Amino acid sequence: MSELPMEAPAPRVGDPTVIVDSLHVEYRSFAGGKRADNKSSLLKRSRGTRVVHALKGVSFVAHRGESIGVIGHNGSGKSTLMRSIAGLTPAASGAVYAQSRPALLGVNAALMPALTGEKNVILGALALGLTPKEAAEKYQDIVDFSEIEEFIDLPMKTYSSGMGARLRFAIAMAREQQILLIDEALAVGDKGFRERSEERIRAMRDRAGTVFLVSHSMGSIRDTCNRVIWIDHGTIRMDGDPKEVIQAYRASK
Amino acid sequence: MNTTDYEALAREHGLERVGARPPLGEYLMEAWRRRNFAIALAKYRIQASLHDSRLGMSWIVLFPILQAALYGTIFGVIMPSDTRPDNFVPFLVVGVFTFGFFSSSLSGGAKAVTGNVGLVRSLSFPRILLPLAQVIQFAMELVPMVIVMAIIVAAFGEPISWKWLLVVPIYALMALFNAGIALVVARLTVHLKDVTQILPLVTRLFFYVSGIFYSLELVLADNPPWMLTLAQLNPVHDYIALVRYCLVGGTELQTLAWVVAVASAIVTAAFGIVFFWKAEERYGSE
User: Fold this and answer.
1) What is the H or E stretch that residue A28 is in?
2) What is the pLDDT of residue B56?
3) Nearest-CA distance from B46 to chain A in Å?
4) Looking at chain B, which residue has its C-alpha nearest residue A183?
5) Antiparallel, parallel or unpaired: β A227-232 and A235-240
6) Number of CB atoms found within 10 A of residue B86's CB
7) Which of A135, A207, B38, B173 is the 20 to 30 A CA-CA neighbour of B94?
8) Predicted ipTM?
9) The pLDDT of residue B20
10) In sequence order, which residues have a C-beta less than 8 Å from that of residue B200 and are 6 or more positions away?
């Protein structure tokens, strides 16, 4: 959980920041998967246990300054890959190495719809690991970026979906991250807000970070990424130049 | 490239494995750094839970008063018995309120990790903060309850004395004990969801053996003394007995209760922390 120490040599563009080493992830489910004619005993450990092999040996190296788009069909393992890189989903085997702790963009789970936007800004900032002082300093920035100043003292559940999404994005971006993972977050809000968020992400990448972006929108992948990884059924199908990979992905449908 | 190449490359560039469980000391330091998140979580959860009810915050106090009135009616009026001390209402109120702190920590601890899968899957922080946030929340809710308790006790004619201040360290010890229990059940339910089904029974068991609505000393008076000693080794009973000793007249101090209260707080909390930390990498794998 601690901040990893920055090594002595100055960070250069092109240095590895994230190494994914033959990563396997499995989910175990006790519910479902049991066939009606299955007469096995209740106490048997194997009852209804199903193992879903979400990632089957994924390996790649990400470098400083890269902005990597991750594409694939629903259920191909994109979100699992993001969560594993962030260290939130344990690996069944293999490992992820990183220079600093990769952070998944999103604070939705920490927020409480019954509370005002104001309280949620503070709660979200603390959830991201800011100190109360830093949270207070960032407060105005967050509110300004989300453009909901006049509704900030209303419960978040009264917000329109666009307002809620803008506030969530603004809170999530409050902490500078070296390695940022974004899961379908760009498709929110109106055109103006989308452009400003993409701008913000590009700025973060330019500060010598590494960005991963999961999206079904090939447009935003092309606009923000300089490398694309195509995940298919838990393995890497293709990895390389955005144009080529997107073309091959489209051709496969 | 094969597997060893990646590992060597990671080492060469000083990259560390993500999600690795840090040593205990480092883990606790990080948890301490992030303490404000746990406190905010506790505070805002209370506000959010009462947000929609008309009476709002007063429910924190109202619910235990109704609970005490219910038990008082059943055990004091409908089924009176000679196993109850004379000052039964203060005796019962202290028992019910204090026991509530334990039982909510037990059930809240069980849900601390499994009920917050979303948080665990999207944000990285020491997971120990989740069960601790639960206990902090119940400790916050306890404060107005203790004030109500003191008012009820005083209203029934108990003299106000300096001893009343002792409830603060007693509840602090109990909070440590509850935190240990919450940490243990938080991890157990991650391994085995079935634990949640058993917990209500465990709560009932403790409710009946901790002498909430009867006096253990009176009930076991005719039995061999070892039975009373055995019953007094239950820490939950001892915390209740100590608070009663402070607030309610006619209860004498037992040295054993103090020893058990202090020792079980330290041992349970220490065990809970280590037990929970050992599985840090597992949380979120469901």
Assistant:
1) strand A16-29
2) 74
3) 11
4) B122
5) antiparallel
6) 7
7) B38
8) 0.82
9) 81
10) B107
